[in-house]
Design goal:
Blueprint: E1 4-8, H1 40-53, E2 57-60, H2 69-76, E3 84-89, H3 96-110, E4 114-118, H4 124-129, H5 136-154, E5 159-162, E6 167-171, E7 183-186, H6 190-199, E8 202-206, H7 210-226, E9 232-242, H8 245-257, H9 261-272, H10 277-286, E10 294-296, E11 299-300, E12 313-317, H11 318-330, E13 333-339, H12 343-353, H13 355-360
Parallel strand pairs: 1-2, 1-13, 2-3, 3-4, 4-7, 7-8, 8-9, 9-12, 9-13
Antiparallel strand pairs: 5-6, 10-11, 11-12
Helix pairs in contact: 1-12, 3-5, 5-6, 6-7
Length: 382
């Protein structure tokens, strides 16, 4: 399958530093101003750039310090021509039937430009801030039930369900979405992998060295095969790509030099003991040290020193970055969700430097085309 390359919409603000508005609380900085607030005009600049450069979609995050992903991306639909919006949301915070209705409406109003990123949640403080007190595995059980109901409501027939977390009778939407939005989902724990095998279309990993990624993909492929399904796979990475490797690494060095050692220590203590298995794996890549951050050729763990979520970046010349992407693609990764500070300028650096190389190698889908909807659902649950 050809590559799908996506960009990121910084709805918590943007800057030229690693630590932004979203992550300052985690490292003890509280809520501070950012260099570029996430107003609709700036976000529209990024969305239009992604649309023009040939990215398939933009991921819009969810969380306390982000603008709401549904409302923000709906406001950007008229600013773009064909760009899709990968909307992140937490399944425990709204009714699954309402989520099915919202997605169906969005799909009609956008002309089929919605993708869904289901975020079960791994930060206990964040979950409790929204009133969620379930433990780790219970949250994934709830996600499994939630997606069963969403897909049942999309089926065009009233859907009944009774589980440990939800009970619905006759869940349905006025008109099923056409096409059905692809569901993206990540999680490194056994509980998450079981949900992925049963329910999702694209299983996402954070950027680890290829041998670690390959091990996970093989395991999840096997679980999906046992469930009679076949998944697609994606990876979430930052990127620093320049004409030469020296230029790219100079940017990484500048970002690293701006980090406060106390903030690095505080973040490592927080993330190395996080409820999220994926977050623990990100912290283990660097161990809180700053002297061994290139953990694989062109794979830099500097982002994970002070921020949660995806903690690694591809760093190098445009050619080197394209080589690493091709290497990951050979493992079976088809969706690459990328970002960089600042997001507007870095969208152009990668879009004008690396996308043409991938296209010349025959790896990139034509004109950002997205085959995510092509694979039929399993009856009732997909």
């Amino acid at each position: 399958m050809p590559l799908q390359v996506h960009w990121f919409l910084p709805t918590s603000g943007d800057s030229r530093e690693i630590v932004g508005f979203t992550h300052r609380e985690a490292v003890g900085g509280g809520v501070t101003e950012v260099q570029r607030p996430p107003d609709i005009d700036y976000l529209a600049q990024i969305a239009r750039a992604a649309d023009q450069l040939g990215y398939t979609a933009v991921l819009t995050p969810t969380g306390t310090w982000c603008e709401d992903a549904w409302l923000t991306t709906a406001a950007l639909l008229r600013e773009t021509r064909r760009l899709k919006f990968l909307v992140a949301f937490r399944p425990g915070f709204l009714s699954p039937t309402l989520a099915a209705q919202m997605a169906a409406t969005y799909q009609r109003h956008s002309g089929g430009r919605l993708l869904l990123n289901v975020v079960t949640g791994g930060d206990i403080e964040e979950q409790r801030r929204f009133g969620d007190w379930l433990d780790h595995d219970q949250r994934y059980e709830r996600t499994d039930e939630f997606l069963s109901i969403v897909r049942g409501a999309w089926s065009g027939r009233p859907y009944d369900f009774e589980g440990s977390h939800y009970r619905v009778a006759g869940a349905v939407v006025p008109r099923p979405p056409d096409p059905v939005p692809a569901v993206f989902f990540g999680g490194a724990s056994p509980a998450a992998e079981r949900v992925a095998a049963r329910q999702v279309d694209v299983y996402l990993a954070w950027g680890e060295p290829p041998n670690q990624i390959a091990e996970r993909l093989d395991r999840v492929r096997g679980l999906a095969a046992d469930a009679g399904r076949r998944l697609r796979f994606g990876i979430r990475l930052h990127v620093i790509s320049r004409d030469t490797a020296a230029q790219a690494w100079a940017v990484a060095d500048r970002l690293l030099a701006a980090l406060d050692p106390a903030a690095i220590e505080a973040a490592h203590q927080r993330y190395s003991t996080a409820d999220s298995v994926g977050q623990q794996r990100m912290a283990a890549l660097h161990g809180g040290r700053t002297d061994q951050l290139e953990i694989y050729p062109n794979l830099w763990a500097g982002y994970g020193l002070v921020r949660g979520g995806a903690g690694t970046a591809l760093v190098g010349s445009h050619q080197e970055v394209a080589d690493r992407i091709e290497e990951y693609h050979a493992l079976g990764l088809d969706h690459f969700i990328l970002s960089g500070q600042p997001h507007l300028e870095e969208a152009y650096e990668f879009g004008e430097g690396v996308l043409p190389l991938l296209r010349a190698r025959g790896l990139l889908a034509a004109d950002g085309a997205d085959p995510s909807y092509a694979e039929p659902a399993l009856a009732g649950v997909r």
